[in-house]
Amino acid sequence: MNSGSVIEIKELSYGYEKETVLEDINLSVPEKAFLGVVGPNGSGKSTLMKLILGLLKPQQGEIYLFGKEIRRFKEWEKIGYVSQKANSFNSGFPATVFEVVASGLTKKLGLFQFFKKKDKVKVMKALESVGMANLSSKNIGELSGGQQQRVFIARALVSDPELLILDEPTVGVDAQNVNSFYQMLGELNKNRGITLLMVTHDIGTISDKVTHIACLNRNLHFHGPAKEFEQLSEGGLSEAYGHDIHLLAHHHDHGGVKR
């Protein structure tokens, strides 16, 4: 186990019935990294996330979280998870933005505990960190998909996780807001020192926003710093990605977030 690694995966394989989905995966996520996991549909990204979150058990190989073998890992409050909720959220759900974020504290407080002043401060700080504090009293259903996704990130942040896992966080976020969304994630990584692991299809837009990239397609075809990924030719990229790909990189000035 590498010291300073938040996630360490060794020779991991997993399959459903007779189909192997992940084969011989070796992956290390350093502390305070921002890792983008890319790969085509059916490449095993969702299965890998479920294994890291303890929802599936490895069939072969080992997973270590914060230095502990996953079967012995108990400190799940260190890990925040945001799924593709914004794309399928019930807009009629009767809760304010503040209440949705506060619900992220119920694991620590218990469902029927009253919120104290310090808990309310934590909720507002989490909302500030995603640029949503001014909408705390709005009903969650009144927000756009991108705003809802920011609220769900705040809900994951309110319990002060050290690792934040995001599954396709820009699903449901309109195109003009995607860059500011990535900028927000970069600032969480840089300013709060949170390790981020993000599954995404945005292969052409993330290489200047993350610190590391992993290309998954059953096997791990590339794993390393984003700068090395950017230097791959299209042929090398196709090999890394596991199939033919044409990269259109979109580089923007992100006010210091560019990596």
Task: Output the radius of gyration.
Answer: 18 Å
Oligomer class: single chain
Q: What percent of residues adopt helix (DSSP H or I)?
A: 25-40%
- List how many beta strands DSSP finds: 10
Number of domains: 1
Name of the CATH first level: Alpha Beta
Major pleated sheet: 6 strands, mixed
N-end to C-end Cα span: 26 Å
- Global mean pLDDT: 83
Percentage of residues in strands: 15-25%
List descriptors.
259 residues; alpha/beta; Rossmann fold; six-stranded mixed β-sheet; four-stranded antiparallel β-sheet; 29% helix; globular; disordered C terminus
Write a structural description.
This protein has 259 residues and is an alpha/beta fold. It has one domain: P-loop containing nucleotide triphosphate hydrolases (Rossmann fold), CATH 3.40.50.300. Helices cover 29% and strands 25% of the residues. It has eight helices and ten strands. It has helices at 45-52, 97-102, 106-109, 117-129, 145-157, 175-191, 226-230, 234-241; strands at residues 5-16, 19-30, 34-38, 60-65, 68-69, 79-82, 163-167, 195-199, 212-217, 219-225. A six-stranded mixed sheet has the order 6-7-8-3-9-10, with helices on both faces. Strands 2-1-4-5 form a four-stranded antiparallel sheet, covered by helices on one side. The longest helix has 17 residues, at 175-191. The protein is globular. It starts with a strand and ends in an 18-residue tail after the last helix. Residues 248-259 have low confidence and may be disordered.
